[in-house]
Design a protein that fits this description.
Layout (H helix, E strand, L loop, with lengths): L1 E6 L2 E8 L4 E4 L10 E3 L4 E7 L5 E7 L6 E2 L8 E7 L4 E8 L2 E8 L5 E7 L3 E5 L5 E5 L8 E5 L4 E5 L8 E6 L8 E7 L2 E8 L3 E10 L3 E5 L5 E8 L2 E8 L4 E5 L5 E7 L5 E7 L2 E7 L18 E7 L6 E7 L7 E7 L13 H8 L3 E6 L8 H5 L7 H16 L3 E11 L1 H12 L7 E4 L5 H7 L2 H11 L7 H6 L13 E6 L7 H14 L3 E6 L8 H20 L25
Parallel strand pairs: 29-30, 29-31, 31-32, 32-33, 33-34
Antiparallel strand pairs: 1-2, 2-3, 4-5, 5-6, 6-7, 8-9, 9-10, 10-11, 12-13, 13-14, 14-15, 16-17, 17-18, 18-19, 20-21, 21-22, 22-23, 24-25, 25-26, 27-28, 28-30
Amino acid sequence: MVFTADADGRCEVFTWDAGTRRARRVTDRPGGTLHGAIDADAHVWWFAEDARGVGHWRFQPFTGGTDLPGLTGVPDGTARGLAVTGGATAAVGIGLDDSTTVRVGPRGGPGREVTRVDGTVSLTGLTPAGDLLVLSRAADSPRAVTLLTTTGAEVAVLPGDGPHGRLWALGFTPAGVHTTLLLVREHEDRYLLATWTAATGALTHAWCALDTQFTARWYPDGRSALIRQDRHGRSLLHRADFARRTLEPVPAPPGTLLDAAPHPGGDLHTLWTDSSHPPRMTSTAGTPLPPLGTVEGRVPGTLRDLRTPGPDGPVHTLLSLPESGRAPYPAVFLVHGGPADHDRDAYDGTVHSLVASGFAVVRVNYRGSTGYGPRWQRAHRDGVGHTQVADLAAVHADLTARLLIRPDATGLWGSSWGGYLVLLALGTRPGLWRAGVAVKPVADYAAAHAVATPALRALDERLFGGNPEQVPDAYAHSSPIRYADRVRDPLLVVAATHDAKCPAAQVRSYLAALDAAGARHESLWLDTGHDGYDGADHVNVLRRAVLFLDQRLRGTTRTTPPRRPAPSGAGSAHHTVKH
């Protein structure tokens, strides 16, 4: 197998040989490496990118050797998919400014352009025979899924904008099995498994319907699929048998499955975690898997699930409480990004550090979060951002009424879109929270849209129903810079000079607006991109933020945190928030 792990404070790619029970470090890059893969011929692949996320695919044999470019003659760009057959045919998707190129060729040989399309497209799969590609656009696009030959001829276009609902492509059946593409379709308030073959076209399997988001992958026999469902902050596993048309539960421990993969002989590999345990790999057949990093002793804190009544249904909160002291506690709302994401019952070093410092940690799966069904994700009745802030405020009132948190000692902390919500909340509801930390946030939506990546511009336009020229009032209404002169609470803003997702210039404009308003604020600049892979930067932000909140919320002054920030550990999962 190939996995990404901590290597001297950076994310790097490793191999694992189950026969020898040895791990080997493959990459050693100054900025770290996150994206890795392994092909059917046991070659290790990784994406060599710079701080802006621009780079190319490289590979080497599993046992080591010379690094080579995955395909030659391919321009550097952003990673938009990799697929390699057992016959050494490689396909890559590369983002180039406002377009995407898909190249195909022999592994290590020249890459021939199959297609180049405007906008953001992801290469989702390549048949084992190397004759058919699948490309994915936005799930609600009229061309959500496109199948084409490696000569560029279109075979089928599957829409996601019609009455049948949004559509996602997952992958082709394994080698030796009739070619079938696995799909997920959203219909009304459910998610259904679907398939495509050249003979039948797209078929939706109504017998396999779930109420929240899921992903799936084929079992080795190609006759059934393993489904990993995200539901209310935790994971469930199911086996969908196409011959018998049955959906059966697969045993899994409570918590979160970051990944699950079926292997020949009935072996199932999982990457599991919960709030008290860093990620660990398991095998149902006892296959030796890499031992992952852990933390000394017991992870502090107790986890509670709470639900707050709301206009579109109850708002689910994961509340982590310190084990010392008495309620009500000083508290930090740790706001997730995305917005198409959710907080999970999973280990989080930031939660660990805050709870160990005596704070209650409040993680709210506000409207717009995944894991609660299509209607919850589409609920934006108060406008983009404002709906989410309303949910945060409702949970704040609920926890205050339950005497669990101190309203005079409660702050906000979020990254990326979560950082955006922090800024919007402090500007629209001054005084409700007493301090905020916004890491790499959207601060001026229109300005960010003008220079952000094509994928993020498309996301903005789906959220707002158009671009800033088409719906300027909507962007202005939801932009934190509009409310900068109302910020009354101390604020720490962390930004990155090479951030292509939440660009530096719009953060600087927001800081200037705070200066003009005389708002109390501090800033910390990182010489990285949006998704930094160097642990030193994360620890720096963690230490600065914990000390900032400790001083602003409790009036204490420390030169060091009360406990070392929890290390990610070798083999720990690296989470990045995407705006």
